[in-house]
Design goal:
With about 200 residues, this protein is mainly beta. The chain contains 3 helices and 8 strands, in the order ααβββββββαβ. It has one domain: Phosphatidylethanolamine-binding Protein (Alpha-Beta Complex).
């Protein structure tokens, strides 16, 4: 594996600089943040811990909300790929692969089903809930891509198929980083304090 390109290296902390990230293969210095294109979340700032309500540590967990600014002119479709960048000895685990998003400013609400979703690292098409062991910190990289052509990819496609279908057609991209440190799962049991 090679190191991350310099334009991306500056945007991610050392622990999240996985050379296999989708954005390392698809983006470049010209398209990164082009025209102010940016990915954010109303639920967390860049570098801030994910709330447990977006992880396997809470029973009714859902995908976090995401928002993005207007992509570069001519964008036909937007794609979101979320990967675990922690273990650089293996390919980054895909937690979410989403496409079919209109090529304009927009958002996905908390827990909202995306227009189209591909397979995550466990082979299903849902938000793969982060589930690090207690005390272990893992590093999640949310990546957004604008393309100058609409995708014909069917739902349930793999991460590899998605990356292959958009390579060479990226007009803008950005990343949003969030770590999560494993905590004991919320088993829903009531504490005595709940009755005080």
């Amino acid at each position: 594996m090679t190191d991350l390109p310099e334009w991306l290296d500056k945007k991610l902390p050392a622990a999240a600089r996985h050379p296999g990230l989708a954005i390392a293969a698809l983006g470049d210095a010209k398209t990164f943040g082009r025209g102010g294109f940016a990915l954010t979340s109303p639920a967390f700032d860049a570098g801030e811990q994910l709330d447990p309500c977006f992880t396997a540590k809470e029973e009714d967990a859902v995908a976090p909300p995401l928002e993005w600014s207007a992509p570069p002119p001519g964008a036909q479709e937007l794609i979101v790929i979320v990967e675990d960048a922690t273990d650089t000895s293996a390919a980054p685990a895909c937690h979410w692969a989403v496409w079919g998003l209109a090529g304009q400013r927009g958002k996905l609400l908390e827990g909202e089903a995306p227009p189209r979703a591909g397979k995550n690292a466990q082979g299903n098409s849902e938000w793969l809930l982060p589930d690090p062991p207690v005390g272990e910190t893992r590093h999640y990289v949310f990546q957004i891509f604008a393309t100058d052509l609409p995708l014909t990819l069917m739902p349930g496609a793999s991460r590899e198929q998605l990356i292959s279908s958009i390579k060479g057609f990226i007009t803008g991209c950005d990343v949003l980083y969030a770590p999560f440190t494993g905590i004991p799962a919320d088993d829903g049991a009531l504490d005595d304090d709940d009755f005080d």
